[in-house]
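Researcher: Please predict.
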Amino acid sequence: MHRFFVSGENIRAGRVVFDSGEARHIERVLRLGAGDSVMVFDGSGYEYLVRLNEQGRDRLAGEVIEKAYIDRETASSVYLVQGLGKGDKMDTIIQKAVEIGVKAVYPLACERSVVRLEGDKAVKRVERWQEIAVEACKQCRRNVVPEIKPVIELTALCQEMHGKCALMLYEKEQELGISNYLKSNERELAGKELFLLVGPEGGFSPTEVEMARQHGCTTVTLGSRILRTETAGIVAASIILYELGDLG
């Protein structure tokens, strides 16, 4: 059954009102209308079986037939801190991160980031990424939409993650593999928050690595092969969720 996102404010007293975008897709693309049923989620964990019963110009509404809280979230909270990449790499990263179970994504402005996002441009880009997160939730059947945070710099990030578990993928780390770290700290990490830092093309600068370490971040390696920025974070997050029992 087709799934659609409707914010909680548009679900009241057993009535669901679709926004114009979802309404056009339902009516014009899927050719559904009054009497047909669709699945709706509100981003906070609730899922609704809705029967369509009101149609108008770019307006569509329906009645709730069933409502249930369905938890498909991971026990551990993995936050992907992704260095800004070129082109549409962030689009792909966010889509895949949502699919595997990441709880939030922090777009990180790094010294070696080619892309610079500031002001209105940054706000609009984050809004677009949030829409991508919603679309990914439709596909993977998550009912809680991960938040795409505003673009942040490392100094501010270090303050936010201070005292929490944080791992930084660093190509010059020779000793500590990510799997070994997770296996050694499995009990302490289970059900907790974990920040995963991934650099842009070119990786983190020595200054950034030192700053992160000073705030308790542990540098780890994914092995002897260097992965692209759009690959590394998804691979590392998958390993973390697997080792903590939340994937596979």
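Model: The longest strand covers residues 46-56.
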